[in-house]
Design goal:
The protein has 149 residues and is an all-alpha fold. The chain contains three helices and no strands. Helix content is 89%, strand content 0%.
Length: 149
């Protein structure tokens, strides 16, 4: 059993050879413990459960499939994190550029704000004059209507 597992894990990248040996021993231990539990199951319930060489190969293939799936998930998560970090760095660069532009435009913005304040004050004065003229016009209109009657 051990040599079968070692043969299967020979081509798989698990890091170092010690880890391959440990995983091979684990597969062998799982298969033998299932066989022992199958015997106990028979003794207690008088029902047979068979562990075959095919079930051992299925165990190894299941482990390899799960390993492949988890590696894909990890690579996908790593790529997402790397992409997110890239986006954050790009955003930081854009913010820094905008801050420099804003700092450069600040005196011009202050000047425009002051001009706007002056314009608003002038508009208030003009509005007050227009209101006075409107009052005079309304009064003249009322007098003209009175005369017309």
């Amino acid at each position: 059993l051990l040599s079968v597992a070692q043969t299967f894990f020979e081509e798989v990248d698990l890091g170092d050879d010690q880890l391959k040996q440990s995983v091979s021993e684990m597969c062998m231990e799982i298969h033998t413990s299932v066989s022992q539990m199958a015997e106990r199951f028979y003794e207690e319930l008088r029902r047979r459960y068979y562990t075959t060489p095919t079930s051992y190969l299925e165990l190894i293939n299941l482990y390899l499939d799960m390993l492949k799936t988890k590696r894909k998930q990890i690579v996908t998560a790593r790529d997402r994190v790397a992409n997110g970090l890239k986006k954050i760095l790009e955003t930081n660069e854009l913010v820094a550029t905008m801050q420099v532009e804003l700092t450069a435009l600040e005196p011009e913005l202050k000047k425009m704000s002051e001009e706007t304040d002056k314009l608003m004050a002038r508009l208030q004065v003009d509005q007050a004059k227009a209101d006075e003229v409107r009052k005079v016009v309304v009064a003249d209109e009322a007098v003209a209507k009175e005369k017309a009657k």
